[in-house]
From TrEMBL:
Residues 348-565 form the Histidine kinase domain. SUPFAM superfamilies: ATPase domain of HSP90 chaperone/DNA topoisomerase II/histidine kinase, Homodimeric domain of signal transducing histidine kinase, PYP-like sensor domain (PAS domain). Residues 170-222 form the HAMP domain. It is a multi-pass membrane protein. It is an enzyme of class 2 (transferase). This is histidine kinase. GO terms for molecular function: ATP binding; phosphoprotein phosphatase activity; phosphorelay sensor kinase activity. It comes from Aquisalibacillus elongatus. Keywords: ATP-binding, Cell membrane, Kinase, Membrane, Nucleotide-binding, Phosphoprotein, Transferase, Transmembrane, Transmembrane helix, Two-component regulatory system.
Length: 565
């Protein structure tokens, strides 16, 4: 578009130049014509004075004198006798028409122009007038010649201006426009823009300078972007939340972790911190650091239940001028959860140990109080002490097993064994409890199914699941075992028709000491650690546990163990 516009401008300039030459040509033609006519007039005046002084009207042969003057001078003559209305002339017969035009004119001493001829009349006496008619003036030839020269000159000037304009356009206007366009692109951030095919001279130097500037800007920008990308990569991959606020309270840097923890917006850079941070406690801590200009450490809990240890520190430059605040947020949710687990564990263990110990201590004190007791009461007390002692021993054993399984150096002693042998051994151990609870038990296990696993730990898993199913199934209920191999896993599924597990308790059923029915668990000697042990053993084998239960209808638990690992 600019190229077409510039061509139009050049065309207009060329036309104006030609028109200027033409106007000058008109003026020149008029001036030349004036000087030509003036020269002929002077010559005609001189000739008319000569003829008027030299002619002799007293001679009878006036025609001969006229012919003589016509041949000697570049003029034709007309001698007119006004009294007799007679005239003599030197015109040929072919010039009769022009002669009549001359005779039709009112003759006077003034010079006239008729059909490119000059007429000069001189009165010789009262009745006689002689008129000299010059040869035809070369006006047409003069006009044709001059206009030809002017037109050719105008064309040459137009061609010269057009050629010069094109040359200037190609060598200067186009490169300068290209340089301007490139500079605009550079100012807009396109550092790959370049000037190509720059001509010689100062414009070439300009193009080379701009290209050099563009390369330097591209290099600096690429270097800055690489550093910025590395910084962003490092910052965004830091699990701790990072935030940088300048002295005006605007966020200048925030990693994704901080945005996920404390803001609902995707991009908070460039915003005022209290407009984008959703946590009121963090905003108050920031305000305190900004106003007091000193470090602060605070523990913050979010609405989602996460805990953060937040460190806030003011930023100072080399001139000891305050420039903002840096915030580092460490997620301590897991630490808090571990603390809670530890507290709960200590509390639960203390509670579980206190109950049997208190019971044993009470009965022992009763037996040792010095009073006489009959044999039946003593045996009853001793049985209770034996039961509580066994329960205490079971609890300690489960705690030791759980502690051993949770150690980092815990290893499984794996071997190939028949799953039917395992299930038959567990079923044999549980026969007495099944009979006491009047429960029906069915085992569906393929005979040739083997697995590569830790026999004793898997025995412990099946035993705990079996024991829980018996414990929470009413008299006359039913328990079914189904073991199948599928997709490289052996699936141990146990279903009972027991009391079931409430939906709100299903997510916590594998926690330590968690019981759905605490009174019933204590009556049967449960410790609340069985399912937690099951979960850890299954996970150590690389397996999974699936629980499905409906309160009042029963529970189905599926343990999936890799057949070969």
């Amino acid at each position: 578009m600019n190229r077409i516009r510039d061509r139009k401008t050049l065309f207009v300039y060329t036309v104006l130049s030609i028109m200027f030459i033409m106007v000058l040509g008109v003026l020149f033609v008029q001036v030349a014509k004036h000087y030509v006519i003036q020269a002929y007039e002077e010559q005609l005046n001189y000739d008319s004075q000569f003829v008027s002084q030299d002619i002799d009207l007293n001679q009878t042969d006036l025609q001969s004198q006229l012919d003589y003057y016509s041949e000697a001078l570049p003029v034709d003559l007309i001698l007119y006798d006004e009294a007799n209305r007679e005239y003599l002339h030197t015109f040929t017969s072919t010039e009769s028409k022009f002669l009549n035009e001359v005779l039709g004119e009112e003759l006077s001493n003034n010079t006239k122009v008729i059909d490119s001829h000059l007429l000069q009349s001189v009165r010789l006496n009262d009745n006689t007038v002689i008129t000299l008619v010059s040869e035809q003036l070369p006006i047409y030839y003069l006009n044709t010649t001059l206009w030809s020269v002017i037109i050719v000159l105008a064309l040459l000037v137009g061609i010269f201006i057009w050629s010069l304009g094109n040359r200037l356009y190609e060598n200067y206007v186009t490169p300068i426009r290209e340089a301007s366009k490139t500079a605009s692109e550079l100012s807009e951030g396109n550092y790959k823009a370049r000037i190509h095919d720059a001509p010689y001279g100062i414009v070439s130097e300009l193009g080379q300078s701009i290209n050099k500037l563009a390369r330097n800007l591209e290099y600096i920008t690429a270097k800055y972007e690489n550093q910025n990308d590395r910084l962003k990569t490092v910052v965004n991959n830091v699990e701790s939340g990072l935030l940088l606020i300048n002295e005006k309270g605007l966020t200048r840097l925030a990693n994704q972790a901080f945005v996920n923890y404390f803001s609902n917006q995707d991009d908070i850079v460039g915003e005022v911190y209290y407009d984008v941070i959703e946590n009121q406690a963090l905003n108050e801590a920031l305000q305190e650091v900004i106003f007091m200009e000193r470090k602060k450490q605070v523990t913050i809990e979010t609405d989602r239940g996460h805990y953060f240890e937040v460190y806030l520190a003011p930023i100072w430059n080399d001139q000891e001028t305050w420039k903002g605040v840096v915030v580092v947020c460490h997620d301590i949710t897991k630490i808090k959860q571990l603390e809670n687990v530890r507290k709960d564990f200590v509390a639960n263990v203390s509670h579980e140990l206190r109950t049997p110990i208190t019971s044993i201590q009470g009965f022992v004190e009763t037996l040792l109080d010095g009073n006489q007791h009959d044999e039946e009461i003593i045996n009853k007390f001793l049985k209770i002490i034996d039961k509580e002692t066994r329960r205490l021993n079971t609890l300690i054993k489960d705690l030791l097993d759980l502690s051993s399984i949770e150690k980092d150096d815990f290893t499984l002693t794996k071997s190939y064994f028949s799953i039917q042998d395992l299930m038959s051994e567990v079923n044999l151990v549980m026969e007495r409890q099944l009979e006491e609870h009047q429960l029906e038990s069915n085992l569906d296990v393929p005979e040739d199914l083997e697995i590569y696993a830790d026999y004793n730990r898997l025995y412990q898993v099946v035993l705990n699941l079996y024991s829980n199913a018996i414990q929470y199934t009413q008299l006359g209920g039913k328990i079914e075992w189904n073991v199948v191999q599928e997709d490289g896993f052996v699936h141990f599924n146990i279903q009972d028709t027991g009391i079931g597990i409430p939906e709100q308790a299903q997510d916590r059923i594998f926690e330590r000491f968690y019981r759905v029915d605490r009174d019933r668990s204590r009556q049967t000697g449960g410790t609340g650690l069985g399912l937690s042990i099951v979960k850890h053993i299954v996970e150590a084998h690389g397996g999974t546990i699936d629980l499905q239960s409906k309160e009042g209808e029963g529970t189905s638990i599926t343990v999936s163990i890799p057949q070969l690992l």
